[in-house]
Structure formats: C-alpha cells, structure tokens
Amino acid sequence: MSKTEITSILATDCGSTTTKAILIEKRDNVFRLVVRGEAPTTVEAPVEDVTQGVLNAVSEVQELAGRQILTDDGKAIIKPIKDGKGVDLYVSTSSAGGGLQMMVSGVVKTMSGESATRAALGAGAIVMDVLATNDGRLPHQKIQRIRHLRPDMILLSGGVDGGTKSHVIALAEIIAAASPKARLGAGYELPVLYAGNKDAQAEIKETLGTKVALDITDNLRPSMESENLMPTRQKIQHLFLEHVMSHAPGYPHLMELTDEDIMPTPGAVGDIMQLISRKKGLTVVGADIGGATTDVFSVFQGIYNKSVSANYGMSYSISNVFAEAGLENIMRWVPFEMDERDLRNRVKNKMIRPTTIPYLLEELMVEQACAREALRLSFDQHRSLAVGLKGIQQERTIGDVFEQTMTGETLVNLKDLNMLIGSGGVLSHAPRRQQTAMMLIDSFLPEGLTQLTVDSIFMMPQLGVLAKVHEEAALSVFERDCLIYLGTCVAPTGIVKKTGEAVLDYVLTKQNGDVLKGTVNGGELNVVKLAVGETAKIVIHPKRHYDMGNGPGKDFEGEVSGGVVGLIFDTRGRPFKFPTDNAERVKLVKSWYKALDLYPGL
Amino acid sequence: MASAYTPGLKIVSKTLVEKDRKLPLLGEVRVKKGDKVKAESVVASTNLPGNVFMVNIANLLSIEPHEIKDFLKKKEGDRVEKDDIIAETTGFFGFFKSCVRSPIKGSIENLSTATGQAVLREPPIPVEVHAYVDGEIDDIYPNEGVKIKTTATYIQGIFGIGGEVTGLLEVVSSSPDAVLEKDDIKPVHAGKIIVGGSLVTAEALQKAIDVGVRGVIVGGYDAHDLKEFLGYDLGVAITGTEEKGITLVVTEGFGKIQMAHKTYELLKAAEGMKTSINGATQIRAGVIRPEVIIPLKVEAHDEQVHQGNNGMLVGTSVRIIRQPHFGEVAKVVNLPEKPVVIESEAKVRVVDIETTSGLKLTLPRANVEIIEE
C-alpha cells in the first residue's frame, strides 16, 4: 500500500509494565490521534507472550473508537482497512525486556574486575556478580552461578595489552562451558562483550564466537595505571538496546503482526527529541521514565546523546530507585511523616506487583517522590555519558584507581538548556499538569530560563517509530496532539542563605501590553499565569549573589513562553537544600506544593 | 471488553511437574529412564580435578633440581597425607636432616628434575546433582543430566529467598491470617518445611534458622526485616543464591497479608508430606517465581491449572493488591465501562467490589487480582 492510500494507523509501545496503543486516522486530510488504549504488558505466566498485552490494548482502542480492528477471534489485526474494519498500517516499539542485569569478569578481582564493575555500573547496569580468576570459586561453581543468575549480558575483561593472555582465555572457557542462555529463551543469543587484553582477541573469538553474541571493544584496563571505560560503557548501552531491552517473551510472534521492524523504545523517543531540537532550533533535555528503565536524551552544541538507565523506573525498578537514592532522599519530597516499615512494604509490593496504580493521594505523592529521584539519578548518569569526545582515555595512578571520575567533559550545561521534555507514565499521566512541571524542575534543577513540556498521553515512542515509515502522519500528530506546553521555569543560580530574602525583581511585559512587576524571595516558588501560546518579554534584576546567566547580580532580558501551568519562578537556589528540622521541611515543601496547587487539600 | 489481565500465580492441587536437572560440566548420568528417584538421590555426577599445589623441593632442600631424585621418599602417583614427608636429606650421621612435607592430602602428580618441583594434586572434587523432587526419570540428557516428572501439588509464591530444600511439611500457624511468632517454632520443627499464616516475624525466622527448620512458607514478610536479614536493601528482585540457612517462600507480598485460603488449604491437606521448595525469584521479563512442590503418590495427573486471568466478570472473586484495604478479598459487583476519577485524581478504569466484610469499594482494575476458588 502506498503512503497516500494510508488512512488509519495503529501504533503500540510495549513497555515493561504497560502496553500502550494509539489509533491515528486521516480526517479532513489531516492525521490526528483518535483514541488511546492500554493494558498490562503480558510477560508473566499464564500468558508469557507480549502479543497478548498488545491485543488487549488494541481491544480497548476498538472499544473506545467504536469500531472493529481485531479479527473476530481477537488474535490478529485486520489489515488493510475494509468496510470500516481494521487499519492500514501497524507499527510498534518495545522496551518490554526490562532492565539490565550483568555479570562482569576480570582476571584480578580488585583490578580488572573492579574496572569492569565500574564500566557496567556507569552504563546503567546492575552487577549481579563479579567472576575473577582469584575469586576463590572453583570453575564449576562459576558455571553454576552463570546459569543460575541468567545475566542479560556478560562483560569479560582482564589482562593488560601486551600482557599474559592465559587467564582471560581461561575465563572465556568458563563462560563457554556454562553455555549461557539469554534470559528470554530460545532464539536469542546472550551478548558477551570482550574488553580485555587486545592480544587475546583472536583466542576469545575462537572460544566464544559460536556460542554467544560476542562483541569486542577496547581494553578497559590497557595498562595497570590506565583505565578506559567509556568505549565499554557506550558498547554496553548499544548492546542493551539491540539485544535485551526490546526483546520479551512472544517477541517473534509480535514481529509477525507489525509492518515494520519493532524499534527499541529509546531509539524511537530519541528520534522525536532530535526532531524537536532540529525543528525548533533548541537545546533540549528529554526524559522518558518507564517501569524498568529511564531514558535521558540531550542535544547540546548540535550533538545528540542518549542514555538508558536500565534499573531506574517506577515499577520493576522502583525498589532499586529506593535502594540507590536512599530513604531520606525519597522522603524529602513527601510533605508528611510516614512509617518507614510501611513505606518499605509499599515500595516492595509495587515491585512485585508492578501494574498497580496509586489510589490514595498519599501514595501518589510517594510515587512522584520516587519519580523525582529516578529522574535525578538517571540525569546524573546521562551527564557522565554525554561527553564531547568519546573514548578519552583517563590516566589513573595506582592511588586513584578506585575513584570513579568521568572520562571527558559533559556536554550538558543547564544554563544553555532551552527546553525540558518529559515523557513516560508518571509524567504524562500525572493527574495535574502542575505535578509534571514540579517533578521536572525538582529532578533536573534547570537554571536560567527553561521551557517545560510533556508528552500529552505518552505517545512519543509510537510517533518515533511511525516517523520512520510515515513521517507526515507522525509530524501531524506530534504538532497537534503530542506536546503539551507546561510553561517556563525561571531559576537563578546561587545559594539561598536566608529564606524570605529577596532574590530577584522582574518586569513582565505581555503581548497585549499588560505589565506585571514583582519581587520573588528565596526558598519560594511562585507562579504567574501565562497561557499556552502566549509569550512575554521579561526583564530580571537578580540580587547580587544570584545569577540568571549574565553573571551574579547582572540584569537579564529574555522571552518566556506560557503553558498550562504558566511562568514558574523557582528561587529556592541552585543548588538548594532542605531544612534539617523535619517540621520545617514539611512546612516548606507544603508551601511549594501549595504555590503550584499541586495536590488537593494542602 | 478487554481482558482484565493480572499476573497470576500458579496454584494447582494436582499437576504434572517437570524439572531439568543438569550438571555444570559434562559427567555421568547415574540413573536411567523410568527409574523412580527420591529428592535426595544423585541423578548425575562428575569429578573435578583437585586443586594443584606446587612445592619446590630443590629450593627447600638447598640442592640442585637434578639432585632431588636422590632424596625423594615418594614417587609419581603415590598418595600422600598432609605432612607426609615427600623428600628428605640424609644429614650428617643422621643429624641435621632437612625434609619437605606435603601441604595437602592428595597425590604426587609430577616430580621434575628440571625444575626441582613437585606437583601435588588434591583428591578429585565430586560434583553431584540431586533430583530435588521425588519422581520418575522422564528423559536423559547424555553426560549432562535428566528430566524428572512428578505428579504434585504446585504452588508459586510471589517472592522468595534461598535455594532448593526438601523436608516434611508442617502447618504451624492455626489459620491463614495468624502471625508466625518466635514461640510457635519448636525444636521438633528441625529439618521440616513449616507453614505460617499472614506474616513471619524477624524473630521467628531467626529462631527457625536456629532450630534447623529448612524452609518457611508464609503469606507476608516485612520488607524492613528483609533488609536487616540480607544485610542490604534489595534493589532488583533477583534472589535464590542467598546462604542464610533457610529458604523462604512468600505467597502474597510484603507486610502482613493473609495467605490465600486456597493456598493454605492445599498446604494443610499436604501436612506431613515430603515437600520441595525453592525461593529463587527473578521479577523481570522471563520471570522466575519461588515454588512449592509436593509430590503426590498417584500415577495419573489431573491438571487443574489456575487460569484466573481470562477476564473479570460480575461475581468473580478478587483480592485487593494495593492500599487501601490491601490483602482483603472481595467479589466483583460491577465493571463500569467509563473511566472514573479516583482519590488520587487519576482517571482510570475501575471495578466495583464488595469485600467479605460487606464493604463496598470502587478501585482501579489494576489494583485487584483474580483469585480462583
């Protein structure tokens, strides 16, 4: 079917927790979103076939659209459209495979083993175990361990370039003997990344080449004193996207239904982020927070970067967010006291029953607190990966081999950031858009003027894959139905020494000539209404310790865009700290939430 | 209407269970197809070469390598005990002798007059695979292992810790909502797999370990206790290799949650029977859940698989799996078509239910799971 004949498109995104389906139709010569449906992703018994979740989500779409899309037995999609039944095109993205759990191996546990661990952690993986020649385990115990843990990927390292090869080859032999199977079963090969002694590459290929999906990159420990983690980290991210994330039980079955190759979700969302940056000429940071993973994207200096934090998310990975961020960091955003025991139980229950949603307001607040931390941690990881020159070798001395520092300077500069884009269930489906704006601000701590936007109903993945095959339809829906403008955040840098002291004065001149003047105090959030589509000139006079981008105390002029929330003055400082006294903290957090009318009854 | 799918755990009174049991390395299969085996039977085994120890005799005796043959007390292939003399000088008139003793029990593998070294090897290390469940050998994987089949009661838990253990089953808690307390655990429970109700306390679990209980099956466990027990905060639910001296299978979730009646009744009916459990859990795509297998002494199997996921209907029994009223059991009263705004202000598809205590609630469909009666 030619593109011009296509009038009805179905697109799905199989997340780790939820499968989302959208129906796009050409009406009055324009492609528009018609309805959206969703259903839990089916990766567990008794179904264990991701296709069932897709069919369930499409079933909801056909109910809401009031017309038939699935065949009478509900097992396939009618294509092409005929007598008002079915669709012309079906495309899908997937991140149903969930997080990334790796085993790493090195010859010496405290040398290459440590470097390999750092590389895997830096790439967003959970390290399930470190195998080393000197870890005290016998070969069969190592083999049993590999088989039991079912890692998603194995990183094999060891030996300095030009050094002895026998130890790392022996480790490869153990991996080969374990004959590791990919967690998602037959049809997939387990990715094994070799980042060891370059002189052993031929032997490693011979040992593992036919048994696993072997990939080779630069030695992460080329000499005793040097560590070169970035090529390994980048490669792990790449292999994760290609081999793990999109795959799930029933994936081959789903492939039979789609008209185009299934695209990994971060790839599709990343394409949309780049499109926004290119079309609007803006520097962009975007985040897509899912159940198992959180993907962060950025375009600075025309360079696009993507990172997948494979174990920060809102369902399968929520317990990991809790463990990594710590109780205190989660609870600092919650404006009430909570019993720690109860909170831990709730978080773990969400992990083991990932499809549940918060019914109570206090549960929503806790989940949104976890989202802030998941986004913050993912953004930290992104910054360390988004560097200008890839593969810069970091020289280390024996003394600092255990310090983790970045290789290369990050490209992410918040003062240069024009637009922050949020996507993912917790951001797109927040009951109030103010909540989305607040989560974005609290997680990314934008500086200067930053426009805030969100994916309206969490459909960027579907539009990303659709753009590959029908750009006109994808762009049409994107422009009209996808991006919601929340407003602009105004945030000077500088530390607030005393709550209540004046931080800045502003003069806002709207398009209709109305002039608004005001002073904003430290430690506060203030909102000025500015509607969607409205822009205004703003002149800001920061006080002497505060900087809007022109230097401390220097005046700043710019243009701000409105949105469903409006203009948000965030004068809590950059960085900002919470009061140590809990009652004071609760009072302050409540005042912020009240300023944005974040929750009912505050 | 779209099927209201919820992840369902398999809870079956009688079903055919098949288990692959494989060696980590190639070896010998010790049983044949059709053999009846016990859980503790060795079905396959292999021997790993023992560890090697190098002893430099020449250095230790201050002689040239080629001279060691004159002082050896053992020859290649000889067995040695720890501290046996391998080589010894003659000394002066029987005095001032120097000797080299074996650091291990094992055998002399090699004696080199080129390097002056002795290579000693410890005895072979046996690696065995047990059947894990009482059953029958259904298939043989040559040199690797076997497939075992058994007709059994099969219960999947939602979360567990610890690996495979076997023991006689004893229901300790008097009801599915009773808390398993420290005082409930008695020395008589040593070697057994015990069943609690809605919660096992940290003290009770510790006492169970102390008295030698092999496994605990219980409705709920406190996440805070889990952190204390493991010594770290579990981020991603991948378990099974903990060596804590006990295996725990949690059937419902974290906190105090009444064990599902069906689960409790199945376990009660199997009291005194030999039971195999495994706490290994991996909650991610390609999920692994902990399991309870109670082999039955019947040949035929009558599969009654829990299939509670083919859609919620009016009258369907459900359990609430999130606050408020977490853990309560209810019946579906109505399934409104249109999304409804709930307390958190989210607009979601809901289900109207009535709990066993008569409470009428409207909850997100995602927050209930179907239970089989």
In short:
With 602 residues, chain A is α/β, with parallel strands linked by helices. Chain B folds into three domains: 11-16 and 151-295, Glucose Oxidase, domain 1 (3-Layer(bba) Sandwich), CATH 3.50.30; 52-121, OB fold (Dihydrolipoamide Acetyltransferase, E2P); 317-370, Roll (SH3 type barrels), CATH 2.30.30.
Topology:
The complex is a heterodimer of chains A (602) and B (373).
Chain A: E1 8-14, E2 18-27, E3 30-40, H1 50-65, E4 89-94, E5 101-106, H2 112-122, E6 126-132, H3 139-149, E7 153-156, H4 166-178, E8 191-194, H5 201-208, E9 213-216, E10 226-227, H6 230-245, H7 251-257, E11 263-264, H8 265-280, E12 284-289, E13 294-300, E14 303-309, H9 318-325, H10 327-331, H11 340-352, H12 361-385, E15 394-395, E16 419-423, H13 425-428, H14 433-444, E17 448-455, H15 460-469, H16 471-482, E18 483-491, E19 502-510, E20 515-521, E21 524-528, E22 535-542, E23 556-561, E24 566-571, H17 582-595
Chain B: E1 11-22, E2 28-29, E3 36-37, E4 42-48, E5 52-56, H1 57-61, E6 79-80, E7 85-88, E8 99-101, E9 106-111, E10 117-121, E11 125-130, E12 135-141, E13 145-156, E14 159-161, E15 164-171, E16 179-180, E17 192-195, E18 199-200, H2 202-211, E19 215-221, H3 223-230, E20 238-239, E21 247-254, H4 261-269, E22 274-278, E23 281-282, E24 291-295, E25 317-320, E26 329-334, E27 340-341, E28 347-348, E29 350-355, E30 360-364, E31 368-370
Parallel strand pairs in B: 15-17, 16-18, 17-19, 19-21
Antiparallel strand pairs in B: 1-13, 2-4, 3-12, 4-11, 5-10, 6-9, 7-8, 9-10, 12-13, 13-24, 14-21, 15-22, 20-23, 22-24, 25-26, 25-31, 26-29, 27-28, 29-30
